[in-house]
Amino acid sequence: MKQNILIICDSDEHYLKRLDGFLRDSLRIPFDIIGFTDKEALLDFEEKEDSLLVIAGSLFKSSTVKGFKNILVLDERNAALREDHIEYGMDEDVNLKHTGKYQSSEKIAESILSMCLEMPKLSSSGIRRSYKNKMKITAFFTPERRTDQTGKAIEYASEEGAKEKVLYFCNDPYCTNKIIRGGEYDENLSDLMYYAQCEDDRFGIYLEKIVRKNGNFEYIPLPMGQVRDCEGADYIRLLRKIEETGSYEMLIADFSEPFKNLFEVLKMCDRIYTLKDVSGGSSERIELFRNELERVEDFDMSKLVICSSKDVKGIIPGSTGGHSDTYYTRRDD
Prior knowledge:
By secondary structure, the protein is of the alpha/beta class. The chain has two domains: 4-116, Rossmann fold; 136-327, Rossmann fold. The protein contains eight helices and 14 strands. Strands 9-10-8-11-7-12-13-14 form an eight-stranded mixed β-sheet, covered by helices on one side. Strand 9 and strand 10 form a beta hairpin. Helix 2 packs antiparallel against helix 5 and helix 4 packs antiparallel against helix 5. The chain is elongated and about 75 Å long. The N and C termini lie far apart (59 Å).
């Protein structure tokens, strides 16, 4: 298999080493990363056409980058990723973009991933799998709207994220949580659901580009409007695609909004948390939900945990919270 090549060219050796180290640790695409502090070294480099060149704006000249087809220029002034016109002396089919040099390394990595998705010859096979064991899937679903399910699920993600690699998402179209919903996100859960449906071996690149980090866990941003109309099969496909990347040890699905064939998705989860209102007003609705689950063929009721919404620590096995987990098993009546 031909190795993907990423070249970083910057006369600032300290900056080059810092960016090189970050990209080696964070990018899961199999890249052979090469660093040059002398732009003249680019002239003698042979494998230009299929390489991705990341070059400081101060070194960027058409004569220096001649032969390269994919170029990301690190501007000292501008920060946003933008396309640029092809300069005189450059080939017309060059994929040329600019982004800010002094923005965060995470933002630069995101720009690199955007470039990768426009490189047809880039190989995404052999993407590094961080975890080989089966990804654990934990779902939150509560038929009672008065509980702050999303707030508790995020606390749970933070607690678990301190111990293992966690990805979180929520499907609530009216969620107001400012962490997972914001206008600054270019792509979100709706986009990732679409990419999961496409027969594309680059799903891992899309996932890596879209997810964001908050403290101990990573999350998929919500769109500003409603999440695209999805049913159980769509969520099952998404969960399987995420697991295939080997990027996470645990996925937390905050199903604040029910959807068609929800129970089929819950069947593939390792644990389902349902939060009861501390006032006791939600007990009847939860009982109806539990009864419906019992009618689902081959559903393992021992996965269901019903607990108080007062203290999130009470739903974390082995924690010191004051609320006990309630495990339900299938009744024989």
